[in-house]
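Let us work through a complete example step by step.
Step 1: write down the sequence.
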Amino acid sequence: MTAFGITPEEQVELDKALYDALDPVASAIRSRLSGLPEDRKWGAEPVEVALSVLAAWKVVDTEVKRLTAIAAGTAGSYGASYERLGSVWGITRQGARKKWPEAVSRPTASGASANRTVELCGGTAELTRESTSGGWRWTGVGADGTRGAAEGDVRYATPEEAAAHAGAFLKGHSRVDGAAMRREADDFFGTEGRVGDEGPWGREAD
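Step 2: predict the structure and record it as tokens.
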């Protein structure tokens, strides 16, 4: 058994699970092809029944390929190389690149910047990709002047993930909303005794 193989017992369990999953698919295909009611859908020539099962395996094969590509892309987003993907699949690095062409991000061309900018709620954040780890980090300044950054040991797998965390920071440090502050004060203290519509800084609210 190879490092990524399975035991005979696991093989038996896998076969059973696959056949259990295949049966309703094959039954549905056979019923549509034959036009027979549910209780008679297998009442046909053996070759027709076998072809229905083969058609069902085709459906499963297509779905497995889709899920496999997703798994390869996930591994690539966390830094797996085509060499490692190929090793797991039992093929060469070139074979893995051909099989999953979008799984591993291409390195940034020399001299080109991989940095990206996020502008939200009046603040700005810079997303940077480390050349050593390939992970993404962010630093930003909120509209209220607060500075923030990803924690020291945090590296995000994709720029989208880094942007999500940067965006949450910028939203949490947006400009002061005077009207909202007044509403919160009114909810807490009540409006009795408040004179006029002055905002929290003593000027007329917008």
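Step 3: interpret the result. Strands lie at 116-120, 123-129, 136-141, 147-149.
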